[in-house]
Amino acid sequence: MAKVASGRTEEQFQDLLRRLELALDASQIGVWQHNVDDNELLWDMQMHRLYGTGLRDRRVPSDVWMNALHPEDVEKAFSDFQVALDMRGFYNSQFRIILPSGEVRYIRSRAHFYEGLDGSPSFIGAEWDVTADVLLNRELISQKAIAEARAVALEQSRARIEYAADHDYLTGLPNRRYFDRRLAELRKDPTIETLAVLHIDLDGFKEINDTWGHAAGDAALQSVAARVSAAITANDIVARVSGDEFVAVLINVGSSERLKAIVSDIFSRLRREVRFGNEMLRVGASIGVALSQAGKAGNLLAESDVALFQAKKLGRNRAEFFTPALQDELHAERRLADELRLAPVLRQIEPFYQIQVNARSRRIVGLEALARWRHPEKGLLNPAAFLKVADEYGLTPEIDAAVLKRALADRASWVSRGLVPPRIAVNISGRRLADPDLIEGLQALKIPRHAIAFELVETIFLDDPDDRVLASIDGIKRMGIDIEIDDFGSGHASLIGLVKLKPKRLKIDRQLVTAVTVSDEQRRLVGSIVDIARALNVEVIAEGVETEEHARILAEVGCDELQGYAIGYPSPEGEIATLLKSADARGRSRSAAVEDEGTTGSAAR
Ligand code: C2E
Ligand code: MG
Ligand code: MG
Question: Does the C-beta of 387 come closer than 6 Å to ligand 1?
Fold first, then answer.
């Protein structure tokens, strides 16, 4: 038996070779051999299968391999081979091939250098298809990149959400949430000596929005944010806490003089107009300021609120500093407001009536119902004692409604007693006029036509009435309720408003009336108002008629009706009933006399 070099028998060698072929076949690894000096390769069947040649030849021109290479990988495949050749060492490469079918495969190729029998440089190597691995790997890489990008995006959006939760998107300032948290931290900070809180509320912001649109409002807010930020130090904080409200906390501001200087600096910055396109916007602000030692700063925010409330009360566009006295005043006011809120329910609000007479005949033609508060401890209160608070706390609509209800009840009781009540004028506040449910509420009261007139304070309609107010006024007129303009001439009188509103009557303000006895000019002024009213078909009542001389002059200049202390003081229901009874009696006897005259006359004929 022939022996091969390894010492194995030929048979054993052939057997080994078959098994090796079988193993290679199963593993789909192709084996190749290349004598570098030749232009030939030795390929096994698996190599042909890998390259999809459809051939079986053991000898293959090296072009077959080269031509199969993917054009983009040719350079690399060659250079890898060249390196192995130069080093006379291990060859390791990966490249793409294009099969005759057009399919692209990724091939991994490894080989060992050896010298042929004639000393020529040769390689023996193996190749296998790694397409699936490469594609899987590529997929993994792309998935990993996607996952990483998602993680980054998630982190960014988490950061954005956190930022948004603490900041106002429009101005970029911290919001109330952030501010409250920081203020609580600052209070506990032992290194801080004083804290001051400024509560800034813009005046006239709604007007900017209404007149110039929301973009203008936004521009105004952004400019306020920038200006306040510029007026305070980097350690201080300013936050936008609601639509047009800002709060700033100043750290270790030192003396109250220094604080005043900062506040006045903020004011002068805010006073500058804001450019918006071609417009210049004017923003005003009311500021409430509270200062305290850091340890005792628990109520700072509430105290700055108290001060702000005061600033607004005193006419806005100003700063007020918190004091304990202010707090007491506010407490008293709040108590009063709380009591006042219940007063209509407890029937403590009642009307007093002041008579209105015809300027010539002096007969009673009307009554004005004036609210009085029968306070359980303080006694009978005039509007001066509670109307301002009512207005500040939004309680005037309830008071107006209570007075109207009681006036209607009084009227009904007079009618039931056989009296003939004149029309009753009831005061109505702007807030009640703007109530969208007003008309429905009035309809429910079934007010007899021409029994009631509503007195509107001049300021309600002269500030360019909005549609809702105009609609309310229309509805009121349709119900047979007269509209009267109260205190005419006391505010910014506008004839346009008068024409727009077409009231039944106007009431000339007491201040103008009082002066008619002292100057011709004033008399002519009142006369002119009467003339204008005449031209517009509006009746005129003079109010505040305090003397007989007033009454005479006012009748002369043409006023239709008179009201005032000279005619009668505001009086409770009982006294008015008595008055109406005697007026009725006088009226009856007078008309009886007229009738008598008539009979006499005809009898004489
Ligand atoms: P007003 O509607 O102009 O009512 C006239 C006020 O002048 C009344 O004061 C009346 O007592 C007073 N007065 C009448 N004649 C004379 C006079 O000859 N000389 C002087 N010096 N004063 C005179 P009152 O009752 O204190 O009411 C004050 C204001 O309170 C009213 O002014 C009105 O604006 C408001 N008011 C009264 N009742 C109500 C109400 O029910 N609702 C609303 N919203 N406001 C009311
Ligand atoms: Mg009135
Ligand atoms: Mg009046």
Answer: yes
